[in-house]
Design a protein that fits this description.
single chain; alpha/beta; Quinone Oxidoreductase, Chain A, domain 1; Rossmann fold; 7-stranded mixed beta sheet; 6-stranded parallel beta sheet; 13 helices; metal-binding; zinc; oxidoreductase activity, acting on the CH-OH group of donors, NAD or NADP as acceptor; oxidoreductase; ADH-like_N
């Protein structure tokens, strides 16, 4: 979840005459978080959203400051507009990017903040224009809840690259009201950003697919890396990494897990089905593996050198960055030039890719490795996540939790 990209948003969004509707923040509010109700009051998208005067109340767990501690928080949701889906949240996965946001690691967090963007829930109500979803169906919501619908990426169905995309939390809708995420009783989401969960997929299993799963699936699909027989590397065996192993193996790839120690070797080979395990600090093993991989999915969320991993790639190999890192990464150019190698990145996936990935996951009979917890454990879960003490994804049982305390 690369939220630093928001800093580049144009000042078009700012209505500097008023900050009454801006989310509370102990730091100066960036221009794109300032109220835009006046500017957008005649916008068709604004008109389609539920009325500001007709709101309903819900309860979520919010961070109030960079300590990142979550506690119950009551706030308003708009009423169901013509294109909206009103959802009762059942489960929500915990992503490492949630940790970045509640801790203000990127310097742009707004509080109170209800995180959570791997949301599985039940449809309670739909707007008059909604035909794809019905009351009682199980649906999912990921990282996005809005986009401009007019730019090149939107017109090409890759709305995750829209410069005016709206995040499911720590952002604002076009009316200036803050978005809040899935660690909550209910959500209102525009139908475009809702996906149907295929029958037969357990909802708690499906939750991590809405970010971690599609984050891996999208670049493999886009870069033509779905054919059988490829040799791939998964750097970092966390929430995204374990999805990478499962999806790459389902495509028929030979998969090497690359880690800084041998602590996860047994899990990678025996539980996840990886073909090979490579310890990056083992210089001899790294040298023997040089020029052997078609691609590497780099999921490491902290600064790290790139040269050791570039050396593992074949001619025309791709190092695909996935981790959210707030410090510069460095490499020497010959490492790329002499093998015509690529360092690239990818950001979650489109709504179409999410639906495709869910069907693929069901067809292949895959399963996530998760630990289900209740909401009253969420602060402990974040502490453990920060220490990499989870195998491999926490999922909060929101429906089974007492949210008001």
């Amino acid at each position: 979840m690369v939220l630093a990209e928001l800093l580049a948003r144009p000042a078009l969004y700012a209505d500097t005459s008023s900050q009454n509707n801006a989310p509370t923040n102990s730091n100066p509010t960036p221009p794109f978080f300032i109220s835009v109700k006046t500017l957008f009051k005649n916008n068709n998208y604004y008109k389609k959203m539920g009325s500001l005067e007709e709101e309903r109340t819900t309860v979520g767990w919010a961070a109030r400051d960079p300590s990142g501690v979550l506690s119950p928080y009551t706030y308003n949701l708009r009423n169901t507009g013509p294109d909206d889906v009103y959802i009762k949240v059942h489960y929500c996965g915990i992503c490492h990017s949630d940790l970045h946001q509640i801790k203000n690691d990127l310097g742009m967090s707004n509080y109170p903040m209800v995180p959570g963007h791997e949301v599985i829930g039940e449809v309670l109500e739909v707007g008059s224009n909604v035909s794809r979803f019905g009351v009682g169906e199980v649906v999912g919501v990921g990282l996005l809840v809005g986009c401009c619908k007019n730019c090149g990426p939107c017109q090409s169905d890759i709305e995750q690259y829209c410069s005016k995309k709206i995040w499911s939390y720590n952002d604002v809708y076009v009316d200036g009201k803050p978005t809040q995420g899935g660690f909550a009783e209910t959500m209102i989401v525009e139908q475009k950003f809702v996906v149907k969960i295929p029958e037969g997929l357990a909802p708690e299993q499906a939750a991590p697919l809405l970010c971690a799963g599609v984050t891996v699936y999208s670049p493999l699909s886009h870069f033509g890396l779905k054919e059988r027989g490829l040799r791939g590397g998964i750097l970092g065996l966390g929430g995204v990494g374990h999805m990478g192993v499962k999806i790459a193996k389902a495509f028929g790839h030979h998969v090497t897990v690359i880690s800084s120690s041998d602590k996860k070797k047994q899990e990678a080979l025996e539980h996840l089905g990886a073909d090979q395990y490579l310890v990056s600090s083992d210089a001899t093993a790294m040298q023997e593996a040089a020029d052997s991989l078609d691609y590497i999915i780099d999921t490491v969320p902290v600064g790290h050198p790139l040269e050791p991993y570039l050396s593992l790639l074949k001619l025309d190999g791709k190092l695909i960055l996935m981790g959210v890192i707030n410090t510069p990464l460095q490499f020497v150019s010959p490492m790329v030039m002499l093998g015509r190698k690529s360092i690239t990145g990818s950001f979650i996936g489109s709504m179409k890719e999410t639906e495709e990935m869910l069907e693929f996951w069901k067809e292949k009979g895959l399963s996530s490795m998760i630990e289900v917890v209740n909401m009253d454990y969420i602060n402990k879960a974040f502490e453990r996540l920060e220490k990499n003490d989870v195998r491999y994804r926490f999922v909060v049982d929101v429906k089974g939790s007492k949210l008001e305390q």
